[in-house]
Amino acid sequence: MPRSVNSVASKHRRKKIFKAAKGYFGRRKNVLTVAKNAVEKAMGYAFVGRKLKKRAYRRLWIARINAGARQLGTSYSKLIHKLAENKVELNRKVLADLALNHPEAFKALVERLK
C-alpha cells in the first residue's frame, strides 16, 4: 500500500508560519523550526502586550483625572469615592477625556459632587 501524506495541509501549515515570520532576520524567516519558535515567542509577546496596553491606558487616565481633580482642590481617590456615593457611572476613560479636553464640564461635575 502506498504511503499517504497530505502535502497540501503540510504546505499550508508551513506557509502560515512563514507568512507570520515575514520580515524576520536570518534563518528566523526561512527555516521552519527556527521560524516556528520565533513566531510562537512573538505571539506570546503580542498576547502579553495587549494586556499591558490596557493597564497603561488605565494608569494614564487615572493620572489625568488626578491632575484635573487637584486643580479643583480635591484628589483622585476622594473624587472617585464621591462618584460612587452619588451613583455617577462615568468610567475613567470618559472622566480623563473631560478633565483634558472639557475642563469646564469636569469642573461642573466636581462642583456638583462637593
Structure description:
The protein is mainly alpha-helical and about 110 residues long. Helices cover about 75% and strands about 0% of the residues. The protein has a single domain, classed as Ribosomal protein L20, C-terminal domain (c-terminal domain of poly(a) binding protein), CATH 1.10.1900.
**Low-confidence runs of at least 5 consecutive residues:** none
Question: What separation lies between the terminal Cα atoms?
Answer: 85 Å
Percentage of residues assigned to helices: over 70%
β-strand percent reads: under 5%
Give the helices and strands as they follow along the chain.
HHHHH
Q: Supply the CATH superfamily name.
A: Ribosomal protein L20, C-terminal domain
Q: How many domains make up the 3D coordinates?
A: 1
CATH topology value: c-terminal domain of poly(a) binding protein
Shape: rod-shaped
Number of strands: 0
Largest sheet: none
Report the structural category.
mainly alpha
Brief rundown of the structure:
With 114 residues, the chain is mainly alpha-helical. The protein has helices spanning 7-20, 32-71, 76-85, 92-101, 103-113.
